[in-house]
Amino acid sequence: MASSQKSIALVGSGNWGSAIAGHIGEKIRDLKGQYNERLLMWCKEETLDDGRKLTEVINKEHENVKYLPDKKIPENVIAEPDLIKAVKDADILVFVIPHQFVKETCEKLKDKIKKDAFALTLVKGFYVDEKTNELQLVSEIITKTLNIPCLSMMGANIANEVAEKVFCEATIGSRDDKHSETVRELIDTPVFRLRFYPDVEIIEMLGALKNVIAMLAGFSEGLEAGFNTRAAVLRLGFREMINFCRLYKKESTPDIYLESCGIADLIASSLGGRNYNGAKKKAETNKSLKDIEKEDLNGQSLQGPGTAKEAYQFLEGKKLLDQFPLFRDAHLICEDKIKPKVFLENLSKHPEFDRKQ
Ligand SMILES: NC(=O)c1ccc[n+]([C@@H]2O[C@H](COP(=O)([O-])OP(=O)(O)OC[C@H]3O[C@@H](n4cnc5c(N)ncnc54)[C@H](O)[C@@H]3O)[C@@H](O)[C@H]2O)c1
Ligand SMILES: O=P(O)(O)OC[C@H](O)CO
């Protein structure tokens, strides 16, 4: 292996982690030698019901039978159960774990990675500090803990479809041309097109926030709301997403909300994402989202309820809950404090209808 070859590691191997591993694995194999073909994918070890280790199965059958069943992963993707071994020689670290595990994982990586590495986060979610009410994005946690730059990639990217090579696009948040070029080389293909913007934080915020509004789309469907009402939920939800982003950071690209990371991801997620499906089932059955996650997702994680909670806390701290009734009600529904139908009843009082043009 030539020493100039760059190595890539994936921090995560769930549903999206395995799909993007397949995509990047094929891309670097086809680039023939520009990158180290061995793509190490950190896989938190677990024993399957039949007693086999998940990493052993992935490396033997080239399929993540638990998190992305029935989709083959190229043989140059190697599942590695040891987190440090997976990342220590990597020049590029792709973070793709459920957001609630980012802090603990970054802590384990401190001083264990190459100093001149950079990261790309595919994680949709953020943290809000309970004491200070400070909102922290995943890219910020990665940069602060590991002292490396972090780009973001968000968009309408339902993992199972990406694994089937169904056309999609994504938005990359990057302020660095050199890193952008590397990401383009690693990910951009005719079936996975990329667009680049400097709005790293807004791109990431949108990816997190859409999970909450997609749950509302699911509740609406489960309650058999009319199409007009469901469209209103999406429009008002999108308006709240934009207002939320602006509370955190002013966009540098006015049209950023119209990119894949914004309107397109909201649409895709509200048509068929896991958060949408889980919420639909909740409205139909009155079960808790935790129970639905356990029943239907076999270890995959609904990111919407956690983000709804963080968003609620952030808005409450700023005394702005009344300005964001959809985010407020989404959290209260997730916590079983109000019935799903209440958010539909509240629509007509949305502050948007008092807003001057
Ligand atoms: N699945 C999708 O279609 C999709 C698409 C785009 C973005 N995303 C985002 O990507 C991120 C990862 O999603 P996913 O679908 O790959 O995950 P997932 O929902 O499949 O979650 C399961 C993964 O979480 C891991 N995990 C469990 N406990 C852990 C711990 N303590 N530490 C670290 N990892 C642990 C499991 O090992 C498993 O790999 C999420 O933020 C999600 O919103 C998902
Ligand atoms: O299945 P969800 O709801 O986690 O959404 C998946 C992706 O974020 C869609 O882009």
Automatic annotation (TrEMBL):
Active-site annotation: K210 (proton acceptor)
Catalytic activity: sn-glycerol 3-phosphate + NAD(+) = dihydroxyacetone phosphate + NADH + H(+)
This protein's UniProt keywords: NAD, Oxidoreductase
Binding site for NAD(+): G12, S13, G14, N15, W16, G17, F101, A159, R274, Q303
Record: residues binding substrate: K124, R274, N275
Sequence ranges assigned to domain Glycerol-3-phosphate dehydrogenase NAD-dependent C-terminal in this UniProt record: 199-344
Entry EC number(s): 1.1.1.8
Domain Glycerol-3-phosphate dehydrogenase NAD-dependent N-terminal: residue ranges: 8-178
Transmembrane segments: none
A GO term, aspect molecular function: NAD binding
Single biological process term from Gene Ontology: carbohydrate metabolic process
GO cellular component, one term: cytosol
NCBIfam families cross-referenced by the UniProt entry: glycerol3P_DH
Annotated family: Belongs to the NAD-dependent glycerol-3-phosphate dehydrogenase family.
Protein name (record): Glycerol-3-phosphate dehydrogenase [NAD(+)]
Annotated organism of origin: Adineta steineri
